[in-house]
Amino acid sequence: MTTPNSRPPHTEVRLIASSGYPHDVAVAARGVAWLKQHGYHTTNPDVLARRYLRFGGTDAERLADLHAIGTGVPHELTLAVRGGYGIARLLAQADFARIAEQAAASATPIVGHSDFTAFQLAYLAATGGITFSGPMLLADFGADRVDPYMWEHFEGILRDPAYRIDVAAPQSGGQPFSGAVAGTLWGGNLAMLCSLLGTPFMPRVEGGVLFLEDINEPPYRVERMLIQLQQAGVLGTQRAIVLGDFSNYRVTDYDNGYDMEAVVAYLRDALPVPVLTGLPFGHCARKLTLPVGAQVRLAARADGFSMAFSGYPVLPPVA
């Protein structure tokens, strides 16, 4: 953890409002203020005032946000404002090679999740560029109470090129694998992955470690999307699948005991690869920041698993 006295000169933050607009300007302002208090200064808060239909600006404005990634000072952090919907409109027009060249030259970490998953995976498919599935301005930094676990691991991985985490997550039915597997870490929001199937924006990752999360999706819809990925040949070619937070859904009497545990049990029976649960990631306050496209070593532990990451851009270390 960093302290005000140990922090280097402030980090500049470029916001990208590439999906929805801020639902509450007070929440957005609180997020900007919290980041500034902790050494992250927003350079373009004007994007927070943009509105066009349900989007954070016109398609041209939001596309310009993407094309501006990496054009600021070296090591500028790029942070998504929020999710919702909107990235799908931009993918066919995005110049991913240009974005990747700029991002590499400036060593800018790119962070977001939810709808932003579509950009992250398309960027990975087109260029091999690495981004971070992690917190966003509104839901995370604009919260009434910024989660200390989220902040610890956000700062941790963005300042450490060889970050490692231990996850205490006992597995229902016992540990599904032993030893360790390694490969490309990729994934994000389950619905966004499914939306990219059959398009040039879906990465073709084999032998990877796929992590997944979603919100507002009842278990049967989660299972249907997972089966779609299985039948498309995605799941069976991975070294492991790690499930994060699936929240804000409800089951009914009609489900008759069918729940997320039943989905996981079905998936484990259907796939030749280990399926783990309990990854602290998704539409939840307590989340990790995960480098999409980087390398990961996933190791089994008696009480869960560990993940060691490498090969991703970082901010300058704390002095």
From TrEMBL:
- GO biological process, any: proteolysis
Record GO terms (molecular function): muramoyltetrapeptide carboxypeptidase activity; serine-type peptidase activity
> What does UniProt list as catalytic?
114 (nucleophile), 213 (charge relay system), 283 (charge relay system)
What are the protein's UniProt keywords?
Carboxypeptidase, Hydrolase, Protease, Serine protease
- Its EC number is 3.4.17.13
NAD is among the record's keywords: no
Q: What Pfam families does the annotation carry?
A: Peptidase_S66, Peptidase_S66C
Q: Which InterPro entries match?
A: Carboxypeptidase_A_C_sf, Class_I_gatase-like, LdcA_N, Peptidase_S66_N, Peptidase_S66C, S66_fam
Q: What is this protein called?
A: Muramoyltetrapeptide carboxypeptidase
Organism of provenance: Cupriavidus oxalaticus
